[in-house]
Amino acid sequence: MDPERPPTEFERKVFDALQLIPRGMVTTYGLLGHHISCRSAQAIGQALRRNPFAPDTPCHRVVKGDLTIGGFFGQNGGEPVDRKRRLLESEGVLFLEDGSIDPTRCYRFDE
DNA sequence: AGATTGACTAACC
DNA sequence: AGGTTAGCCAATC
Prior knowledge:
By secondary structure, this protein is mainly alpha-helical. It has a single domain (9-105), classed as Arc Repressor Mutant, subunit A. Helix content is 35%, strand content 4%. The protein is built from four helices and two strands. The protein has a two-stranded parallel ribbon. Helix 2 (29-35) packs across helix 3 (41-49). It binds a DNA duplex through residues 1-2, 5, 8, 10-11, 28-30, 33, 38-51, 59, 62-66, 69-76, 80-81, 84.
């Protein structure tokens, strides 16, 4: 791994899109991808997992397509994901009983 | 240049 | 309801 690599064009687009997500809202890997014309949600996740600016860029506001929590800092569970959840809750994001996020909190980039 | 790797997803079984 | 598969695509071997 190369932590001090300059951001690629693709990563820059992803990070720029992150800034559009309002506080207290989330979006999904797929929706963010759609916004920057990338059909691979996986590639979005790849960009976020090596986010060099965390937590300056709000990568915690990106969750899975089914509005469950998704991953954080390269992990799909455990401590990092707990922190992601608490971050979102502290911003006012509402979690339902089944662990998913209130759909009205899903930002859709002015569709 | 080719293969592998994912913080994914929709569509199947 | 859970697993497998196929499609996706940038970064990284």
